Amino acid sequence: MGRAIVVDHKILPPTEDQLRQIFKKYDTNNDNLLSREELKKAFNYLGSVIPGIRANRGLHHADANKDGFVNEREMDELVKYAVRAGFSVKA
């Protein structure tokens, strides 16, 4: 299931904070907004077999102001969506 962390020979999915940092890393133009394409690349990095669909669903769940981007205030909803989709465990 995507990127994982190995601790004491146990494989753990990324934490919510690590997910947040991964999403921020994919803000490639540094405008503090995540576009559909940036989200697609982030979900691809996380190991999604359907990153375009994950990006669309992430926007649907997180984009409260419906501008087509995920901003800092909307990031928590994006992370919650990623957790529900199985990309993390609750810390």
Automatic annotation (TrEMBL):
<dbReference type="GO" id="GO:0005509">
    <property type="term" value="F:calcium ion binding"/>
</dbReference>
<feature type="domain" description="EF-hand">
    <location>
        <begin position="14"/>
        <end position="49"/>
    </location>
</feature>
<dbReference type="InterPro" id="IPR018247">
    <property type="entry name" value="EF_Hand_1_Ca_BS"/>
</dbReference>
<dbReference type="InterPro" id="IPR011992">
    <property type="entry name" value="EF-hand-dom_pair"/>
</dbReference>
<dbReference type="InterPro" id="IPR002048">
    <property type="entry name" value="EF_hand_dom"/>
</dbReference>
<keyword id="KW-0106">Calcium</keyword>
<protein>
    <recommendedName>
        <fullName>EF-hand domain-containing protein</fullName>
    </recommendedName>
</protein>
<dbReference type="Pfam" id="PF13405">
    <property type="entry name" value="EF-hand_6"/>
</dbReference>
